[in-house]
UniProtKB/TrEMBL annotation:
The chain crosses the membrane at residues 5-21, 27-44, 65-90, 118-145, 166-191, 211-232. This is Uncharacterized protein. Keywords: Membrane, Transmembrane, Transmembrane helix. It comes from Sulfurisphaera javensis. It comes from the Archaea.
Length: 256
């Protein structure tokens, strides 16, 4: 068995087992959360990094990677606290680590996704950087950077081969679709409003259900990962076929 998989299994099991023995030890609970996400990271196949990291990274990659990752953290961090009403009405600028006590078992996934977190207060607005949003944000940033890099490579090839660059419109739309995890924010707003207003939950009970929250908080970002991954696969195929076809044309030209 792969060494990374063995280590990943050990770390995840350590986190889950430690959950039952941590009780109210805050530091141990934080360590368990970190080991859980490190363990999940080790489960990611090497093929993923070959597609998204071990490539020729140009300016397009780094710009799209950096901008999306910052946008992802800021958007989710600020909106999460604003929706919860965590606003301080006086100018204060500070940063601190926030962690929660080990909760009952039904809240394990939510706890391990949000604790510990880095909280940043800027002029009364609280921003949180959470384990899950950081984890999924890095993965999405890898995919967006590699997709953009591959689209630019495809564009350069089409230009050099004197073909229409309109062909890149379809994979570009795939990237736009893949970033739709951020579109779950309106759903989060509706969800928390539904919790505040009992009458809403009586009319639309699904809005106030944990299943709906789990779908918009976890399901949509994970769906975006799959969309971007399939889009990158198709882009690689398009680049390979275009390069292969051009090589055949050059061989025929040289033969004649």
């Amino acid at each position: 068995m792969n060494v990374k998989v063995i280590i990943g299994i050990f770390l995840c099991l350590f986190s889950i087992i430690g959950y039952f023995v941590s009780l109210h030890y805050l530091l141990l609970g934080s360590i368990l959360t970190l080991t859980f996400w490190i363990g999940l990271w080790l489960f990611i196949p090497k093929r993923f990094f070959d597609l998204t990291w071990n490539i020729n990274k140009g300016r397009a990659y780094w710009i799209s990677f950096s901008l999306y990752f910052l946008f992802h953290l800021i958007l989710y961090g600020f909106f999460y606290y604003i929706i919860l009403g965590a606003i301080i009405y006086y100018p204060i600028y500070t940063i601190y680590v926030d962690a929660s006590i080990t909760p009952p078992l039904p809240y394990f996934l939510y706890w391990i996704s949000n604790s510990p977190s880095i909280s940043i207060i800027i002029a009364g607005y609280d921003m949180g950087i959470f384990p899950f949003t950081t984890f999924i944000g890095v993965i999405l940033a890898f995919l967006i950077g590699s997709n953009i890099q591959k689209i630019m490579e495809l564009k350069d090839m089409l230009t050099s081969y004197k073909r229409s660059t309109a062909l890149i419109a379809i994979p570009a739309l795939g990237v736009v679709s893949g970033t739709s995890c951020c579109l779950s924010l309106p759903s989060l707003v509706i969800y928390f409003v539904a919790l505040d207003l009992g009458m809403v939950s009586s009319v639309l009970p699904i809005l106030a259900s944990p299943i709906y929250f789990g779908f918009i908080w976890y399901g949509l970002p994970i769906s975006s990962v799959l969309i971007l991954l399939f889009n990158l696969r198709d882009l690689n195929k398009a680049v390979y076929r275009l390069r292969f076809r051009n090589c055949n044309i050059n061989k025929e030209t040289n033969t004649n």
